[in-house]
Amino acid sequence: AFDPWLSPHTCGERCDKPLANCEHTCKLLCHPGPCPPCPRIVDATCFCGATTAPRRCGTKSLACAKICSKKLDCGEHRCTLTCHEGPCPPCERTAVGTCRCGKTRKTLPCAVKEFGCDELCGKPLSCGHHVCQRECHKGPCGPCALSSRRTCNCGKLTLTGLSCEEPTPSCGNTCEKLLVCGVHLCAERCHEGECNFVCTQLVPKTCGCGSLTKTVPCSQKLRCERKCQRMRECGRHACKRRCCDGNCAPCGEVCGRKLMCGTHKCTAPCHDGPCLPCPRTVLVSCACGFSRAEFPCGRDRSSKQLPCPRPCTLGVGCRHKGKFPHRCHYGPCPPCPSEACGSTLECGHPCPLPCHDPPPPPLPSYEEWTQTMRKERQRQEQKAQSAAANANGGVPLQQLSLNSLLLPRQPITALATLQPDGVAPFYPGHTACHPCVMPVTQPCVGGHTVRQLACHVSRSPGFDSFSCEEHCRQLLECGRHTCDLQCHALPPSDNAVPCAACTRTCALELPCGHKCDKTCHPGECDPCERSNKWKCHGDHQILIIKCKDRLGKSEEELAWMRACGLPCGRSLPRCPHECVAKCHAGDCPAPEKCKKKVTVRCSCRRMKRQWECSKVQEALANGRPKERAAYSAATMASSISTPTVLECDEDCRAHQQKAQQSKSTLVQKRDSNIEIKEPAKAAAQAPQPELPVDSGSRNRKSPKKNQVKAASVPWWKLDAKTQEVVCNIIGILIVCLVGIFIGVYVNNLMTNLDQSARNRWQPDL
């Protein structure tokens, strides 16, 4: 439920968020924005640790105003500063120190115990021939590097038997040390010292911004001329650096945007987000100079913040002057509080608008006004002196003293006399009232509607009335249509505009149902000349008949017009044959006397005869309702056009009995073939019974016949796994054939295209 005592978008429960810089949680109710500092009272210790005092947990920083006395980095002296936050500064005392090699002595901070003089050690080594070449160091110099086992300068050849006085010879091979690039090897001969060879291997490099890739020497850096167009963090200026790698530098330009005060500009470096408030202040005073205050630049300087007990001497500069007195203030006088102007207009209505005289201009403070008047008076005095000097022969008068330019403290109204030509800029003249806007009822020029118009519009010179922008809707001379022109004046008005002559289509409905398509005309319309498409009675011919030919015709004449003269062709209601009479209206004549020949059969469909259709209908009418209905609904192309109306004879019965016996024999053979489940190998290994010689050949062939019969089982009677294997083999063969066909077709197509291209580009010469 809505609670007026809760802040918007809050739940009313305790916040309980963890506070910053402490282990406590916020105990306020749910609130917007960040949580305030922790208000709990805890024992806080000062920075130096000498004093403990109760403080708020959020502001528990404590300085005890005692000497810190912590040991400094030098380990000998203590900090002499007052209790402070953070680490103690380095020890400021100095002492004379010696470098590591003992050659140099200088004054150093107390915390610095030793230093290096950046010179070579120079001490003699143990060999007695060389000196130490290391920089200033601490401890022994070590043995001579040339007295141990040595190699050539490139390190490929090991040298033995050399004393430290003999120089290291070159092996004459290529140096092949890794160059500064870290990729390629030095190509010079074995040499002393570091490899100073500049790597000249050509490698592909990409510039810093990634827009240019080029092959350059390995030691050369690649930079393009493209200027970076990315926006800097300020979001206002582009980077503009050449070949920038994406890490754009901070913007170094001045912000320069106008501050919220509207007068000054931001002088901070260019930044993102809003600028800080204007840091300047302005001295403001009321018009009489009694009240003064210093405000931050851009802050509201209304009279509420600068009250003055004296009355304002300017007053409201409108036609209601003197009715609304107010106190002295800074800035413009308040607007006229009158609700309505009240002046009588020319039409007699009072002006209903609020006071519309110009608002009072803003007044400067007393100090600004005094300074402006002082400059103006000084200008006038100089002008008078120049005029007097010209009158006295060019002799300049005595210069005015500063006291003569000082003005006494007085209201601004008294200083208005110092304006040139005696014009006071604070009293603008009255402005004329706006035209009368009182609503007046006015009909349109065509008399269709009435509107409320402003009084000054209806009284304007040359205004007769207005157009409602609707259609005129006046009945034209034809008596059928109305005027479609925009609303216009009608007679007897002086500005009357006649309605346009009727040029539209007649569009009257004719007896046939069409509309008259001629131009609007008097009298009756002519007969319709249009033609319609009509189907004949048999629905197999389309006849074109004009509307005027059908007018005044009887039903018999119309039926005769729709007869095409061809055979009817409609299906008879009692048989599947078509009507052979000429195209006619109504039902087909004598459907029960059809003379078409029909093939009839017996129930076993062995015997076949040719009967007339009428005889077949009579045979089906006697106790055969289903066959009769099927025969009536059949068509010439249907398989039901052979009715079974003949009676089977003795031959039919014998034939049926023989067919039944053959069927039972086939069933027995099928069952015997299914029962054979042993494979051919087991049948071959089984012992054969001894048979007589005269019938051996016939009996030896019988097992093969049985095997053939057992193997000749149809594929649809095989098990599901065998059927799946057969289907997969057939599918693979089909896919292979299709692939071969597509390959041959594509090969021929590419050969033809190649040949046509050769003929096009290499014509016969």
Structure in a nutshell:
The chain has helices spanning 366-391, 402-405, 412-415, 455-458, 547-550, 555-561, 613-621, 625-633, 650-675, 680-685, 696-711, 720-761; strands spanning 41-45, 52-56, 94-98, 105-109, 150-151, 158-159, 202-206, 213-217, 281-285, 292-296, 439-443, 450-454, 531-535, 542-546, 597-602, 608-612, 644-646. A three-stranded mixed beta sheet has the order 16-15-17, covered by helices on one side. It has a two-stranded antiparallel sheet with strand order 1-2. The chain has a two-stranded antiparallel ribbon with strand order 3-4.
Can you characterise this structure?
The protein has twelve helices and 17 strands. Residues 394-428, 636-640, 677-682 and 688-712 have low confidence and may be disordered. A three-stranded mixed sheet has the order 16-15-17, with helices on one face. Strands 1-2 form a two-stranded antiparallel ribbon. The chain is α+β, with helices and mostly antiparallel strands.
